[in-house]
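tokens incoming
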């Protein structure tokens, strides 16, 4: 849930109060700790399990994304070429000077070299291009050796945006997502759950938190030219802790989930005014949500991984359990307004979690 949620939430909540959408909430979907534990294990499976939980369709990550491929020279690539000869120095120097000043740009699949003319290199690997150029030179010059590398690639690179230090990274058919993220120098506070990879204008179903936090190499896809990586702002997905806590707040979810115990601790805990018997997590459609009711005994007795909150959740600690949803909304409106005032002007460039960019 991004900061853009708050104005939207205010309008939805006001509408619910004014027109009584779906009628007052009668507690038809209030469940206990056992249901919360069951759903938490689904959340723990990662980003796309959470999207399933929310009813949002997504494709599976195909094994094709993990396969390396032959990297070849493309149109508009600029090559760096070096030539070695044990006795002749004129040709190597000429090739080096041209390469240092302008490079050898591929046009119509060809480059032009001194004493050789046009050579077709498109579709060849740098090693294959070097061998071809060397063979052509050997027709006139013996003992020549040729080396080819990329100086610049306009189309065969990954573009990065958001919280990154490097805007573009060249690829070679073997470079993987882990290496791209390492080169991009993303900050520790980045929201990896709300970050994403786009290929051919489609979001790639890769789970960045599983890759970086858990080292799951099944998510370490091979990058291709034209891929785009967006690293989201910390506040791009959050949960809210409200009611009888020391400080009401929105908590960023960089992994996509947080234990209920840690969420309450981040909000300063429950003061004496709160009823520890009724800690409620509000999840889903604001007009007719699913509400989990737990006690403090559940929270201290169960493992953290079995009590997980996800983006969009509202943790609400009240002096009594929720009985009338519309009445609760009227109590929460001032808090929503206060949070919106505090966060007004804070621009989040993240996407709404789970939605294609």
């Amino acid at each position: 849930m991004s900061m853009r949620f708050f104005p939207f939430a205010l309008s939805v909540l006001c509408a619910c109060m004014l027109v009584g959408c779906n009628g007052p909430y009668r507690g038809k979907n209030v469940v206990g700790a056992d249901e919360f534990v069951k759903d938490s294990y689904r959340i723990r499976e990662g980003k796309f399990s959470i999207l399933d939980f929310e009813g949002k369709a997504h494709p599976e990550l195909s094994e094709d994304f993990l396969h390396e491929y032959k990297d070849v020279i493309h149109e508009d690539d600029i090559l760096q070429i070096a030539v070695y000869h044990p006795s002749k120095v004129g040709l190597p120097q000429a090739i080096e000077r041209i390469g240092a000043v302008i490079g050898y740009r591929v046009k119509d699949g060809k480059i032009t070299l001194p004493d050789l003319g046009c050579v077709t290199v498109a579709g060849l690997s740098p090693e294959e291009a070097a061998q071809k150029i060397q063979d052509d030179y050997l027709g006139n010059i013996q003992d020549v050796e040729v080396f080819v590398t990329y100086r610049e690639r306009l189309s065969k690179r990954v573009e990065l945006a958001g919280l990154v230090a490097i805007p573009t990274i060249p690829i070679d058919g073997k470079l993987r997502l882990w290496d791209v993220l390492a080169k991009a120098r993303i900050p520790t506070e980045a929201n990896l759950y709300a970050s994403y990879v786009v290929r051919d204008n489609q979001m790639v179903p890769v789970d960045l938190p599983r890759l970086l936090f858990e080292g799951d190499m099944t998510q370490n896809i091979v990058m291709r030219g034209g891929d785009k990586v967006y690293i989201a702002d910390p506040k791009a997905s959050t949960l809210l802790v409200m009611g009888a806590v020391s400080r009401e707040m929105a908590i960023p979810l960089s992994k996509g989930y947080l234990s209920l115990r840690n969420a309450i601790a981040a909000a300063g805990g429950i003061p004496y005014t709160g009823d520890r018997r009724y800690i409620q997590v509000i999840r889903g459609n604001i007009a007719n949500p699913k509400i989990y009711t737990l006690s403090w005994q559940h929270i201290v007795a169960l493992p953290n991984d079995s009590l997980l909150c996800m983006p969009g959740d509202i943790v609400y600690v009240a002096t009594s359990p929720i009985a009338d949803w519309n009445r609760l909304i009227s109590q929460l409106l001032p808090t929503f307004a206060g949070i919106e005032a505090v966060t007004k002007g804070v621009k989040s460039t993240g996407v709404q979690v789970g939605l294609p960019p």
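note: The longest helix spans residues 325-343.
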